[in-house]
Amino acid sequence: MSQNPPNLRPDLAPFPRFDAAPRPGQPTIGMVSLGCPKALVDSERILTRLRAEGYAISPDYKGAEAVIVNTCGFLDSAKAESLEAIGEALRENGKVIVTGCLGAEPDFITGAHPKVLAVTGPQQYEQVLDAVHGTVPPAPDPFIDLLPATGVRLTPRHFSYLKISEGCNHHCKFCIIPDMRGRLVSRPAHAVLREAEKLLDAGVRELLVISQDTSAYGVDRKHDLSPWKGGEVRAHITDLAREMGRLAQGTGAWVRLHYVYPYPHVRDLVPLMAEGLVLPYLDIPFQHAHPDTLKRMARPAASARTLDEIAAWRATCPDIVLRSTFIVGYPGETEAEFQYLLDWMDEAQLDRVGCFQYENVAGARSNDLPDHLPDEVKQDRWDRFMAKAQEISAAKLAAKVGTLQQVIVDEVDDEGATCRTRADAPEIDGNLFIDADFGTLSPGDMVTVEVEEASEYDLWGRIV
């Protein structure tokens, strides 16, 4: 079994999986879902609506009467990937409906692919359905077409993404997400908890809480109260995480938090991790460490205070795992600023790290900043940053050799079982491999493993 390559993109959604055969005469739709897990949730919602209307989901182009391509438009490289996926769908199928973040630029899409049937923007579910109806009319059979209570999911059955809000109120100069997805709109707390309860009742063993800014959940609702199980729950990430953890405790499931900005109230989440209500894992997009770089990025953070916060989190919950993403080669980044970031990494000792080389994005304010760096400088800094990150990761994983770890099984094949520890989120972090006595394991099982070997990103162990 292969190890994770060091340049894994930390924003890729899992590959969609479909296995249900259509009934005779049932209309079929294909789906290509690109981008982040938040986009994956949008794809799940679209497919759930289509399944409720009697459509079957095709796993390939040839079996589909039309294909929906849910695009990503965050980076120019992602836009190119989206255009390539649209082109492939047109070649292989011919009937293509485009949605998602890149759909906010319809002229850009139709300029490259004028034969697409329709273009809709992010979260425009009704427009997507209208486009599907016009191309492939529905033909539901209420006696046969049954929809699972949890809707259609594109992840394996044992974990699921749970989106708690849309949009973002920040104005980071390198990001166009607020332009594409709008300002923060939080879901009511009771609606999120009901969905979590349904997923857990359906056998989900891990809930991955996502949004564009998880820490800001409920700000737009003024942290209003919702009725919940004979009482009330506040629309605040601390209250939501606590209630979700209580639900998960009854099944032994994990709750993992993603995209958490390091606001002061995050320290209130950490005791929940120490208590075991949610996993001791924080995914925080630091992006950089030097104060001047952060100022040019218009980021809501300061590196000195962040180190103090990290120390406080670890004092409260020594087992906490921190993952983050960074941008190197940002306009105006000096060698001294980059070295400051490397030194900060030595102090912060983050467990999981991803890194991007800066690139212009159409519409981003950072495009107009002075002192853009040559590609060779960005590549050199990326190489040096990743070497530092790998050095830290290798040391942290080596320290786990000989320890006992609870793991969740993701896949089992003839060579062994691919698992994850509590420190590893699916698709973006490392794995733990079991190469012996794995014959009775199935995806979703949780077992205790003694770690026997470590690399820069992955672990190997045996069941105890």
Major beta-sheet overview: 5 strands, parallel
Roughly how many Å apart are the termini? 21 Å
How big is the Rg? 22 Å
- Uncertain runs: 1-18
Q: Would you state the CATH class of the largest domain? A: Alpha Beta
Helix content range = 25-40%
The structural class is alpha/beta
How large is the count of helical segments?
12
CATH architecture of the largest domain: Alpha-Beta Horseshoe
Q: What count of structural domains?
A: 3
What does the average pLDDT come to?
Answer: 88
Please count the beta strands (DSSP E, at least 2 residues each). Answer: 20
Sum up the overall morphology in one term: globular
Output the CATH topology of the largest domain. Answer: pyruvate-formate lyase- activating enzyme
Domain Radical SAM core: 154-395
Enzyme class: transferase
GO molecular function: 4 iron, 4 sulfur cluster binding; aspartic acid methylthiotransferase activity; metal ion binding; protein methylthiotransferase activity
Function: Catalyzes the methylthiolation of an aspartic acid residue of ribosomal protein uS12.
